[in-house]
Fold these 2 entries.
Entry 1:
Amino acid sequence: MSYLLHIIILVGFFSILSVSLNIACGYAGILSLAHAAFYGIGAYAVGLLTAKAGVPFWPAFLLGSIISCLFGLLVAIPTLRLKGDYLLIATLGFGEIFRNSLINWDALTEGPRGITAIPPATLFGFRLATDQSFFLLLFACIVLCVGTSYLLKSSPFGQVLFAIAEDEDGVTALGRNPVRFKVLTMGISAFWAGVAGGLYAVYVGYISPNIFSINESILIFTMVLLGGLRSIRGSILGAFVLIALPEIMRFVGLPNNIAAVVRQMIYGALLVLIMYFRPQGFLGTIRLR
Amino acid sequence: MLAQFITNGLISGGAYSLIAIGYTMIYGIGKLINFAHGELYMGGAYCFYLFYIVLGWDIYSSTLLAVIAGGVLGMGLERVAYRPFKGSSRLVPLITTIGASTFLRAAVTLLFDLNTKSLLKNASFQEPFSILGINITPVQGLTIVVSLGLMSLLTVVLKKTRVGKAIRATAEDRASASYVGIDTDRITSITFAIGGLMAAVAGILVGYDQNISPNMGILAGFKGFTAAVLGGIGSIPGAALGGICIGLAENLGAAYISSAYKDSISFAMLVLVLLYKPRGILGEKQ
């Protein structure tokens, strides 16, 4: 039972991540491989503030998400003038350099050793130390994230984003500034990645630079593509398929460290196979352009 | 001191140039940023590790076979991740090469584990000697010589030989090239192979100097790409120049600002170049 709940919680983290990446990738066509970096910024902010500075959970959690959002805006302002393939590689560079800074900036981040003993989340004075109670908090955050995503989709703001993904020059011709819209979108997307990061930090109690590597960004990206760009249900489905299904390997008896690598191989092969057989993803309707 | 930093810049710059050449040629031929290019670099280094350290072959045949393996890996990559998607959106091969790079990194990790490995069997290659007050090891000297030599050779091949002319024609105008009887699929495959060869050479040289790990290709690939863009994507002399500029900027930045920011310098350079001079230093006007 507790194992099952642990898997559900992991799917939950990745649902927030994939739904929020879908806001950038699926809505506005901003292909980004920096999502794990924003996830990491949220996690490190909460980890440092609660474990080192003794700040209570909620202020740290909110501040962490806002810091992540600010980083999203900061990265977006120069890079979002780039398009398609150039943008993808620029975000990849940012993600990898972020991880390197975590390792090298020893004085703040404890380097590769990571941050330990992060206290669990609290709610109205109760410690959410058990998986069951933590799951309630996580579930509330998932609902809020998915809600934001649906609201955006039906709002005029979201419609402009769809138009930007279709034809950026057309949007400019109609008198809107696509870069401003995209920068804001990146901020929203990074905010929710920060939320997932903060939750992850207090759930596991330990974070280190390697958790937020480029492989994680590619994994989240694969979830969104597998589910189908722009489809919210698709992103959640993608998170479920890629987190829950590989757990089967545990029952086949593969040791943990090998299973992790085999997983990575599956993600890589899946990216190629999706493009072969169903480039619009499971539940997607739009094609890549 | 300055001379030492410039030499260090030339050493890493030489390796970046070799990686950049692959990016630039593949982009020229296929209008594709090959995301798995860093993995060809890593793959070459690991093949060398397999032949030289694990199997214990001599250094010459190990090097030769590892470089060829890099070329074969490049051709395989083209078959799996590029050719089936020729007619589709430009983003599709981009995503498939991301998939291929993830797969290759994981496969190498599975075969050899994540720990860094040394390629060193003969310590005298790492014994620094000094010329005019500059300390340099034989491997580092070799890196500069080999990268300059290979780039000159490639320039001649592209200018003078039949294959070279076919590659340039395909890069310029794919449709017209196939009208005059050039097998453009084969040329694309050859271009990937050349990219793989060059990347493998860089991987072996850098691996010899700094040890190898399955993730060594990520940042190296990113910097090679930055070098290609800085020099002007599509241009071979540009790739050489771009690589050396990045190597120098990094090493001088590490020396005079802080070594913690070394990797951020290439990122800043990429963003600045793409924003203000997207065609690079030697790129052609359109």
Entry 2:
Amino acid sequence: MDAILKPVRAVGRGAVSGVTALGRAGYLGVDAVHALKKGSLWVPHLPAQMARVGVESVPIALFIAMFTGIVLALQASYTFTGTVPLYFVGTLVGKTMVLELGPVLTGLALSGRVGANIAAELGTMRVTEQIDALETLAYDPVAYLVVPKILAGIIMFPMVVILANGVGIVSGWITSMALLDMSSQEFVKGLRLFFLPFDVRFAVIKSASFGLTVTAVGCAFGFHTRGGAEGVGRATTRAVVISSMIILVLDAFWAMVLL
Amino acid sequence: MVDVHKAFGDKEVLTGFTLSIPEGQTTSVIGGSGSGKSVMLKHIVGLLRPDQGEVWVDGENVSRLDQESLYKLRRDVGYVFQFSALFDSMTIEENVGMGLMRLGDHSHEEVRDRVMECLRLVDLDGYDKRLPSELSGGQRKRAGLARAIATQPKYILYDEPTTGLDPVTTAVIDELIIRMADELSVTALVITHNMTSAFRVSDRIAMLYDGGIRQEGTPEEIRESEDPVVKGFIEGRPELMESVP
């Protein structure tokens, strides 16, 4: 009997802990919205957080985008040769970078870099009682720690993604000219063929939602960390895994809603 | 604190805890590790809310205060954390000045002057530009104390202020606690399991056991207690405590 009940109990415990975590994250979200009123606590920290979340993420985002652009151009040429005019390589590189790979790959990379960083920082502050210390000094820790990080994510992710898109397209362009015997005019013709300004808006909306996801999930797991160094490690891993999953779900959601 | 109950999951930590802290005196709460002393202390500043019961500070029921009223009340309370809880990315000067900066009615010069005064008071002058990681355990405790007194609070709560320190540094911290009480006339509550410290700094001592107060009295009354739990604890004789049903 116990052998049957054991897995049931484990599933039950997992479900309860999942719902509890969701409830805590919800409360934190509500607190963060209320904490927006306390500008004196979060405004001074916003520029530093924007630099940490955005500027410091630029190298990794551009590195990923550069190689994505190269691979996209080569694979498009491989697929199109003999069937579709090669200038469609520019179309495929541009559309795929802007609509999909730029935002998603950058989002996933930054969930590792930014989300893990936030969860580890807040988790360490929680287990060493630094967050309690802030409270005893009459600082609202949500306004002081959480709000500037989330706002920085919402503001900076789209900027990093736009840069990454640009670099991805340029690297695809250079690859097309250097390795595929295409002229610059052909690539640009393909690039402009199906380009819509809405594509950029779509990328910005999507990446802003990814920025919100990565920072908010990192904050939620870090803020509610328990159990010392092991707890910090667990919170960091969960933050990266959960935010990556939410990014993929959001990716599908925005495609269904906006396209 | 009146009939405070607090549980974490199935584990009941406080079960009807009642204690009054006399104004202007230093009260120590003693008890074994994991007995709920820190949990009790966190209720006083609203870091934890009781499942049942009331916590009164300055005529305010802490457990019913909204967040803003709670922050207002906390300005009158200095809290010295067990492991100092200094902000590790800030210098000692910034750490000690945090509470004053939050009050918002001091210029940068005034904050700096007050920070230096507090660091002098805890014998840490000259350490203002150091990071917490560059200080020893005892120095970090003193920096934590400087941060707690910077806003000139009416109450200071000490969470195990001498845990992990050598006997000489423990005596230095004890002297500081006594000095704070004498020079600043604050009401202090000290959580400790170090009996030497408790007898040295306290006007009153209460023992927390099994979720409630086992005995409360002057240091002399506690020292002469015939209660096997109290006697067993202060004399370090677990066999006496185990004999209690």
